[in-house]
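Please annotate the following for my students:
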Amino acid sequence: MAALAAPRMQVGDVTVEGLSDGLLKTSVDLVLGMDRAQAAQLVGSADGSVFIPVNNFLIRRGGKVIMIDAGAGNTMQPTLGKLPANLRAAGVPPESVTHIVMTHLHPDHANGLVDDAGAPHYPNAEIVVHETEAEFWMRPDAANDPDRVKGNRARTRINLKPYLPRIRRVRDGEEFSGFTPVLAPGHTPGHTCWVLAAGSGGGFMAFGDVVHLSAIQITHPDAALTYDLDKDRAIQSRKRILDMAASERLAIAGAHVNAPGFGYVVRKGSSFAFEPAG
């Protein structure tokens, strides 16, 4: 039986493949700065609950097999943890992945680095992460740190333990295999968008959780989420990145934009809209 083809977007000389880790159930109750009824209307939910995709992306370039983020594993909800199987179905054994570029180290992006026993799903992969993100989540807890920060630090130690000899920390603007990190802090201190030059066809950006609820936060970028560690900085980063994506006509791969997450940010009056690719 032939391997299933993953959804693809062609950007210049770069092919980006979309791979799903599954669906994450969340709620508009997490939205800040917007009336709940308006938020529920925007996501099309009668009770405020909503399922959002957890998208991951694959680029094969220069002999490297590069994945963006690693999904949630089996740690959060039964509708998640599908990425390793979907990789195999697309003809990509997890052991063939050479690099995993992280937008940030939250559970739905990083817990899938390891299996239930803490062994690496991607035994030959190097982890590429912004130094600010790595330093924040790998530092010891302070007494006044919130419980959710302490909890994610504990989980980060599990996620990264088998990769410790193979973690590459990059600075803002430091290129890795054609990817340039653009720091977009707020959701986490080192949340990173990754921009890839794509030859004559322009560029591509993986923008992680700059937008978490795409039906709300692209058209209403002032809406924050309780998940944001610094809500004001998250809003500032979202506006800056959306403006950058629209101004430079970057092809977008969004972690939580309707699967497979490909498209373009365009200006709509004083705000923005999302145009799906193809």
Q: What stands out?
A: The first strand starts at residue 8 and ends at 11.
